[in-house]
Amino acid sequence: MFGFSRAQTIAFGVMLVLIVVSPYVLYPVFLMRVLCAALFACAFNLMIGYVGLLSFGHAAFFGMGSYVAAWTMKVWHVDASIAILFGAMTGAFLGFFLGYLAIRRSGIYFAMITLALAQMVYFFCLEAPFTGGEDGIQQVPRGFMFGVIDLSNDMTMYWVVASVFVAGFLLVHRIIHSPFGQILKGIRENEPRATSLGYRTDDYKLIAFVLSCMIAGAAGGTKALVFGIATLTDVHYSTSGEVVLVTLLGGLGTVFGPAMGALVVTSMENYLAQFGAWVTVTQGVIFMICVLAFRRGIIGEIGAFFKISL
Amino acid sequence: MIMIFGIPGPLLFGQLLLGLINGAFYAMLSLGLAVIFGMLNIINFAHGALFMMGAFASWMLLDYAGIGYFPALILAPLLVGAFGILLEKTIISRLYKLDHLYGLLLTFGLSLVIEGLFRNAYGSSGLPYRIPAILQGAMNLGFMYMPIYRGWVVLAAVVICFSTWAIIEKTTLGATLRAATENAPLVQAFGVNVPRLITLTYGGGVALAAFAGVLAAPIYSVNPNMGTNFINTVFAVVVIGGMGSILGSIVTGFALGVVEGLCKVFYPQASATVVFVVMVIVLLTRPRGLFGKAA
Amino acid sequence: MNLTRRSALTTAAAATTLPLIRPARAQGAAIKIGVMNDQSGPYTNTTGVTSVICAKQALEDFGVSTKGMNVEIISADHQNKPDLAVSIARQWFDRDGVDVLLDVPTSSVALALQSVVREKNKVYLNVGAASSALTGSQCSPNFIHWVYDTYMLSRSTGGAMVKAGGDSWYFLTADYAFGKQLASDTSDLVRKAGGKVMGSALYPFPETTDFSSFLVQAQASGAKVLGLANAGGDTVNSIKQAAEFGLNKSMKIAALLMFINDVHALGLDVAQGLSLTESFYWDLNEGTRAFTKRILPKTPKNYPNSIHAGCYSATLHYLKTVADMGAAEAKKDGVATINRMKAMPVEDDLFGKSKIREDGRNMIPAFLFEVKKPSESKGPWDYYNLKVTTSGEDVYRSLADGHCSFIKA
Q: Do C108 and A231 touch (CB under 8 A)?
């Protein structure tokens, strides 16, 4: 039902096994960080990989999702599922308004206008009283999922995050392989032709944008629950830049690329932290090598090697 | 005293003037970006890092070789420009046929590496660099106390900006360059070495960034992060002016400096965001920027 | 150089094996101290690797190996990202068996870790962060704040300036929690002392590099003192430009948070005459000079400031406490260790004697320094003249005013 090819089904199986096994080997909080980043990158990949629009302001949706989820959790003491839902809705709502303005531009101008709009959102978050300014919203309780599942345990939280990720991942995949997704790809390949066939291309792009922002908001909300904080880092343009790098590293327009990219980039950030000053240099070198030699990204290169589409 | 919007007139004039001075930096940096984008089709994210290298080069020249400010104003852009040529030859030239995105990401990685290396070598607090004795002090303009060095910055920026514009728009060399951007194979057929022309253009754009860096060294903290604070605004300037438009980036650079200066008086918290507000408005009304050519 | 995929792959493969051939970690380390700070961003020089070196020096000076103790120090760069910091800290506590979290500059990060340490019942010795909320509204029984906070900075620098006749102020404030708090604390103090606040400019942080507009506004306000409620590169930039606009001749400049490394970045010809507060200066007495001599060859040409010295002092006091109560006990219960640390008097060569208050505030004296003229400076980093010493009791917020929740009134 999700339109996986055989190779993709196998890869999806491998990914599921990894998700189930890894918390017993690796540290669950670190893995939750990876999964949130991966979901965010999947959302971003929906735009760049299948609509062909590079959004340089996706942190706005991720960050606002994270703020709203944290706020509802801390102030209204809602259920964790409701908080994540609020995060997703915030992303979608904001995505609709900003997308409405941005979607009429394409290429580098689309990237720039999303960047500019995201900077305004950043400014709003900096000045608005409810976000707590630089300190952010701190000490957010993890609370309960569906009223019964206590999330204070890291492993329980992990299974919830993993479920959110898998659901988001399948949703993205479902969107791409629906008739709607086919039209999106058609627009990406030849927009005037899609228009001449009678499709209102701007509407399609806007819907895709809103969906992407919704998933980004859910990722932000989940992350706020995991770490108990929502801060300005989440809305900063460097987060927008990071998701571009994650997706590129994993493979633009591949199904499994964003998850792979998130794993690599988050691991780098985490495990290079002990090397102090060399973190940025190492990251920079890796990005340069990727652009120069592995432009298809890790998953893209693997796929090309085996002549399959992953 | 004349009051304008509740602000004393003289103070407002002073602020406009200061905005114009800041605009000089935006103009110089965005000019380099526009030249590189126009000719190479590369969005040079490393521009901020190269600007920083210009400032560091002037400090190194002074500290290691005892070479002062004015020679550094020539030497530092040459050195950093040569470094830029090396970069273009070895790395950037591989990307010309690809999407803009890859150029942006490569130069982003490059700026991480450059800034990281400088931070390892010199720390993050910054290094002292003095205003040259001849440019120290200030004049009283009646409405404001104006440091001589700021006047010099504007003068130097205007001269550099308009000579670059003149070279590209009014000379044979510039004509060849513009022709090479439009149709490289044809220009090559006329016996012009186009790859070399492109390499030199990149070197020139980088040298412009370094020149701005030397001008900035005496008044801004010379530290490895100094370029990152500028780069966003400068990108906005290039986009608002129309990507690749030389005159557009110069005029917009100065104009945005003034807009930002006014914002610093009325609502200072938003002074870093105002450029993006302008950018959204411009892109929604004039998709190719103020001076951009139609697609 | 011709970069091919094959050569890149080989290099990458070689690089991944590197961590494997690193020497195996000391097995069964009894006590583990994790230094977490900024090692690649704007606070690299004021905290960074020098803090780690100072903490290691404390192990050496305490004679850990001769006393038969097993102590290890690890470090990480939090890149000023609260979520990364929380993730590393949780991993340290859950997986790596870390007992003490040390340094942690940047208030938002420091606050984010407060609840993690409390949840895991570990020891949190903060030296690098400024927010006075850490011992106030956000206080914790697992926490000690070692060398400074926003309240003490405004009290020492602000109080002395008003006393010296600087009774009208204009603030240049970085638009984030730390800057605003510093400005409001100092404004209160100035008003209480009978002074006036003539105005203030909130500027966007960290995007601002040019302060000329605000400096001209400050000049036009007619205030006698320019209060800089900012830090790091911003402080350096605003002082540099204040000198350019001649403000250092018409106004007194109070840098509310500044370290000796920032003075070094400015150079004395620009920085001379500035007033600032630190709790430590390398050239203060025999003890501080001897310490600096020991530490300097190991640092990246970076003299120790009060944060670095604080990391040394905090580690030393912690080790004394552990030696007193036994490593097993110390590892077991963070609150008990902190309480023992509070009960024991603090004494070392760098800060002299002090006492840690119930809310976790280390009551060390604050020094108001004036930066020397270039002609007075006799050697490298010879920058400060000591002007005023204020005791810890007089310079820190009183226990009652902090409204710390876990202390029963």
A: yes
